[in-house]
Amino acid sequence: MANKREKVILVCKDCLSRNYTTSRNHATVQERLEVKKFCKRCGKHTIHCETK
Length: 52
Prior knowledge:
4-stranded antiparallel β-sheet, structural constituent of ribosome, ribosomal protein
């Protein structure tokens, strides 16, 4: 059986730097992932969203 998890890159909404990678199950989660994480470039916690 094939693995349905795919790698996604998270980008900061404020400074647009690509800081984090994670995986998500494409079969169950259709919308884009948004997580609040620490951005090293901004120096604060910001919303990071999935890139295209």
